[in-house]
Design a protein that fits this description.
This protein is α+β, with helices and mostly antiparallel strands and 638 residues long. Among the domains are: 269-402, Succinate dehydrogenase/fumarate reductase flavoprotein, catalytic domain (Flavocytochrome C3, Chain A, domain 1, Alpha-Beta Complex), CATH 3.90.700.10; 475-606, Up-down Bundle (Methane Monooxygenase Hydroxylase, Chain G, domain 1). 37% of the residues lie in helices and 16% in strands. It is built from 17 helices and 22 strands. Strands 13-12-17-16-14-15 form a 6-stranded antiparallel β-sheet. β7 (191-199) and β8 form a beta hairpin. α5 (112-132) crosses α12. Bound molecules: flavin-adenine dinucleotide. Flavin-adenine dinucleotide binds next to α3, α6, β7, α7 and β17.
Length: 638
Amino acid sequence: MSRLLDPRLPTGALADAWRRTKEALPLISPMRKGQIEVLVVGTGLAGASAAATLAEQGYRVKVLSFHDSPRRAHSVAAQGGINAARSVAVDGDSVSRLFADTLKGGDFRAREAGCQRLAEISSGIIDQCVAQGVPFAREYGGSLATRSFGGALVSRTFYARGQTGQQLLYGAYQALMRQVQLARVQLLPRRDVLELITVDGVARGLVTRNLLSGELEVHTARTVLLCTGGYSNVYFLSTNALKSNASAIWRAHRKGALFANPCFTQIHPTCIPSGDAFQSKLTLMSESLRNDGRVWLPQQPGDTRAADAIPEQERDYFLERLYPTYGNMTPRDVASRRARELCNNGRGVGPGGRSVYLDLTDAIQRQGRAAIAERYGNLMTMYERISGEDPYRKPMRIYPAPHYTMGGLWVDYHLMSSIPGLFVLGEANYSEHGANRLGASALMQGLADGYFIAPATVTAWLASTPSAEISSEHPACRDALESTRKRIHALLSSGGHTPVDAFHRELGALMIDRCGISRHAEGLRQGLEQLAALEQRFHAEVRVPADACGPNAELEKALRVSDFFGLAQLMLRDALAREESCGAHFREEHQSADGEAQRDDTNFAHIAAWEHCSDGEPIRHSEPLQFTVLQPSTRSYR
Ligand SMILES: Cc1cc2nc3c(=O)[nH]c(=O)nc-3n(C[C@H](O)[C@H](O)[C@H](O)COP(=O)(O)OP(=O)(O)OC[C@H]3O[C@@H](n4cnc5c(N)ncnc54)[C@H](O)[C@@H]3O)c2cc1C
């Protein structure tokens, strides 16, 4: 293993490793904490929970986000639920089952110790949120209700209708605003983080652009936490918020933070298919619908009859047929691959044959419309508004779409990146989901990171590395400011005529084609060539109107898209180097006779971590994965 990659894993028995680690971490007196400034970027579930908790501990916390309100963070869109091992359904769930499902769900490409800690902490997250007043769904008798998600045979997903992210975010937001009121948190909205400042290799600050005044600003602190979400928008069309981006983590990568498994991206099986070439965003239909909905296609290719005109015996409930044990609850990567494959074989329905049915008819007949409306009402309304079809009467039409990124900045067990003092939380880091995240586990991970893990490990870092405050006039700050100014100037003076979105759309099409649901070596190589040409055209032909003084939405986009180009290249390289199929990374050359992913544990049981080289090709390091409690097995949901 490279010297850059010490994961600082706990030793001894896994079961109480986190408790032992935490108890051994150094502390800081409450008095001293009040003199220490911490920068947190992002107010999604990871950022808001971390900022509120660090402020509660007594730190002076500065929170930056490009949104006007913390409540607009993309976490607000999460629909289906949050996992926790609490055994409320008395169906045999336990911490060890959640641990095993997570590790297996990620196809054994995550760290055992991290998955174990996540499962252990999960129950405490629910307690914390209930105490904040998050209105989780409840059973008639008052106990918390649960439902099932893919890749699990138990019911462990806690939910608030189809608005779980919104309700959890409001809980974290209240906690954050309480700290704003107490003057321990300074909220700086409408700030785009464009550069990381390092001093002697340690993270000490950020350069931001004030999105209203256009001014470039320097913020310094003793430590920096990036909680900036995922990078699915590299595909242009995704279920993510329009402005979700990779700039903060990409800039940190260029400053020395290793990027782990960038090609591990999740294409979610149940999204509303895109309508036309000018669409700018896709909408998710929560996986929770698969609790009651059945996925099917007509047996005959090219069958154009309306769904209700196709008799039962002429339908193919393909997930139930192929995966009798998990049926419609097979994990996302598997369900997406099967849907795409059948559509490619001419079996798809709807315009262009690019969708499959998600049918709630049986459930409505069995349980009544009111019961279904109570569980999924807002999703049903959303579907009707977008598609113009009533999902209570006609099956929904769905198709896979980019949704979540398991890849992210490499972090150790303490959530610290390879840049000392730079912590990365939530979807922005590479952590416990391996090569495929299970549904309802992202909210669990973001809140575990923010409420429970980072507050302990950030304190330990600060306690063990005393350092003086730095002035914003420090040469490192001036350099970072200057290089950002130059980047902005280059984009503004390109003199081209093509809007940013045109390039972003082309980039997305290239990435979905070359590095989407399935990949192969030749396609990845061609993708790299096409990408280089497209990037060149972008810099020569992009048009960014107006100037950098004041609001300039096109400039914001151009900065993000120019970073996506670098990241896209790393994703293609990573996918090419990983000569195996695992989880969502499906290399066509590596599959079993029945079309399932074929892992290569001899050569690839590791996390790939890429180092940026300013004057050459990126270097691939690897962190070996050890399995002591659960041995890697072939992941089968049949
Ligand atoms: C439609 C949808 C439904 C989902 N449903 C579920 C679900 O039911 N269960 C589940 O577990 N997961 C779900 N997920 C995944 C989950 O919502 C996300 O993984 C999670 O919310 C990410 O949280 P986060 O705090 O890491 O980032 P985010 O919520 O994305 O927050 C990122 C923050 O960083 C800020 N930011 C980013 N870049 C910059 C920058 N350069 N400068 C300044 N600020 C910046 C943003 O302003 C924002 O505040 C869903 C995802 C989608 C897209």
